[in-house]
């Protein structure tokens, strides 16, 4: 299957080294008795949602300050298709095409587009109201599907009826950070 992905920047060997370190102190206690049994590549579907925010002057601004200009701004947001979480994209990484991906390594979106768009609108209004003031009108320009690569480190036996621990490692080295 051919899919659009964020580029893989973390090699398998580096991911294996990170998996053997078992993350931070908390993860070391969780995985203390388990050894790394397998490292697999996994792709999770994300949606890149492009919105256009339109700021119109309020009645008070029009009457007192004579403001009539309408401001427009494009916003890009990244919505996780499996959890429904949304984050603001400051700089969009390039998107590449990967050919011949196994369908078992792909996790499709569980959330429908309407729910993801409503979450995007909610976050965008909250951030823009806090930093720019006013409540903008938001219009959806496009929704694109892109897959984010992960290395999944499995600890312990992966047979049926056996509890298997796992640690996801982002292969694109992108992260989401709170700045407000």
The total of helices stands at 4
The backbone outline, from C-alpha atoms, is elongated
What sequence of helices (H) and strands (E) makes up the elements?
EHHEHEEEEHEE
| Largest sheet features | 6 strands, mixed
Structural class based on helices, strands and sheet pairing: alpha+beta
- As residue ranges, the low-confidence spans are none
Number of strands: 8
Q: Could you tell me the strand content as a percent range? A: 35-45%
Q: How many distinct folded domains?
A: 1
- Taking all Cα atoms into account, the compactness measure Rg is 21 Å
Distance between the termini: 39 Å
Can you put this structure into words, describing what you see?
- The protein has 180 residues and is α+β, with helices and mostly antiparallel strands.
- It is built from 4 helices and 8 strands, in the order βααβαββββαββ.
- The chain is elongated, with a radius of gyration of 21 Å.
- The two termini are 39 Å apart.
- The model has no long low-confidence stretch (mean pLDDT 88).
